[in-house]
């Protein structure tokens, strides 16, 4: 599998009704790569500052993530984010964000990564997303995520990025903000008109919906009783989604030949991996996870969705 990702690699602090986690490993790239690594090796491109704790690097090793594109930049500081969840755990406020190294240039893509065919642009500055994408003009599948900060501050750049993408994965609130529409289906249709061939809109505990030029799919979330920290669920969903596709589609598959049912199965894997992520702060639950746990929960999820004649 030749899957590459760029996005944030950060130090997070999270306040939730279930507890507080200070200065833990986070970032969109990190959650994405950890989730995707259950399907094969993942390549990351990004920079951290000289304050990045060495023990966080051990986590990358644990997940067998290829860090040859990771730069520890002298004189720079790591991206930091602090979020606070509301009582219902579905909504949160960003209390503080320090872009730091995320506002600087992306490190170059290592020569060994040049044959990557599955490209994921996790949440980060749209300029960096565009920069990574420009290295892969003949990718099999290029998909991006974005969030409120970038929609508010760099809408034009995002618009340009969308014309170059195969797919977009984002939250319902971000889809509403982007399209200035409050109906999910209309918002999805508007996003597909902006350029991507498909959009996956995540609805937290209400599952996700795929709007594709070939049709529509809608999946529930995996019913979760023990939600400790939803941070990174969206990135883990994207990691499971892209990891499944990168592992199951040949590198030279034309994007238009990736069938709707493969995208639906990829969404189901994304849903299942994300359901583990939220069971702990940071990547603690994912660190204990084995591929067999994912496959067992996937089977359980599949059985739950069986309808029609037996
Ligand atoms: P999620 O819960 O899937 O939206 O992802 C949360 C992760 O995204 C956290 O680990 C944060 O470090 C990271 N994050 C928060 N804000 C941003 C941003 N503006 N750009 C990139 N990453 C961010």
Summarize the structure.
The protein has 310 residues and is α/β, with parallel strands linked by helices. Helices cover 36% and strands 25% of the residues. The chain is built from 11 helices and 13 strands.
Overview of this protein structure:
By secondary structure, the protein is an alpha/beta fold. It has helices at residues 28-36, 54-62, 126-133, 148-153, 155-162, 172-179, 184-193, 233-248, 260-277, 284-288, 291-304; strands at 3-6, 10-16, 19-26, 42-49, 65-73, 79-85, 92-98, 118-121, 141-145, 167-171, 198-202, 208-212, 215-219. It has a nine-stranded mixed β-sheet with strand order 5-4-1-8-9-10-11-12-13, sandwiched between helices. Helix 1 (28-36) crosses helix 8 and helix 9 packs across helix 11 (291-304). The termini are far apart. Bound molecules: adenosine monophosphate.
How much of the sequence lies in strands comes to 25-35%
Number of strands: 13
* Weakly predicted, low-confidence segments: none
Assign an overall shape: globular
The number of helical elements comes to 11
The structure class reads alpha/beta
Fraction of helical residues? 25-40%
CA-CA gap between termini: 37 Å
Small-molecule binders: adenosine monophosphate
List keywords for this structure.
4-stranded mixed sheet, 310 residues, alpha/beta
Secondary-structure topology with pairs:
Layout lengths: L2 E4 L3 E7 L2 E8 L1 H9 L5 E8 L4 H9 L2 E9 L5 E7 L6 E7 L19 E4 L4 H8 L7 E5 L2 H6 L1 H8 L4 E5 H8 L4 H10 L4 E5 L5 E5 L2 E5 L13 H16 L11 H18 L6 H5 L2 H14 L6
The structure holds adenosine monophosphate.
Adenosine monophosphate binds next to β2 and α8.
């Amino acid at each position: 599998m030749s899957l590459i990702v760029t996005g944030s690699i950060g130090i997070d602090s999270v306040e939730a009704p279930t507890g507080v986690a200070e200065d833990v490993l986070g970032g969109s790239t990190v959650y994405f790569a950890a989730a995707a690594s259950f399907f094969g090796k993942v390549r990351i491109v990004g920079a951290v500052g000289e304050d990045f704790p060495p023990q966080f690097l051990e986590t990358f090793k644990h997940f067998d993530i290829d860090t040859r594109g990771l730069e520890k930049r002298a004189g720079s500081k790591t991206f930091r984010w602090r979020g606070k969840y509301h009582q219902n755990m579905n909504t949160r406020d960003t209390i503080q964000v320090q872009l730091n190294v995320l506002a600087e240039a992306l490190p170059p893509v290592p020569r060994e990564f040049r044959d990557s065919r599955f490209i994921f642009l996790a949440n980060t500055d749209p300029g960096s997303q565009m920069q990574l994408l420009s290295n892969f003009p003949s990718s099999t599948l290029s998909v991006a995520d974005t969030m409120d900060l970038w929609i508010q501050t760099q809408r034009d750049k995002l618009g340009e990025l969308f014309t170059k993408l195969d797919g977009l994965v984002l939250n319902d609130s971000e889809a509403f903000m982007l399209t200035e529409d409050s109906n999910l289906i209309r918002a999805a249709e508007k996003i597909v008109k902006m350029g991507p061939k498909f959009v996956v809109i995540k609805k937290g505990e209400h599952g996700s919906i795929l709007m594709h030029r070939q049709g529509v799919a809608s999946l529930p979330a995996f019913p979760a009783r023990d939600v400790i920290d939803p941070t990174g669920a969206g990135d883990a969903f994207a990691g499971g989604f892209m990891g499944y596709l990168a592992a199951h589609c040949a590198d030279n598959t034309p994007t238009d030949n990736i069938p709707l049912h493969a995208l639906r199965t990829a969404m189901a894997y994304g849903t299942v991996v994300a359901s583990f992520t939220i069971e702990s702060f940071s990547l603690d639950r994912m660190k204990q996870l084995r591929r067999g746990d994912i496959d067992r929960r996937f089977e359980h999820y599949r059985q739950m969705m069986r309808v029609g004649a037996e």
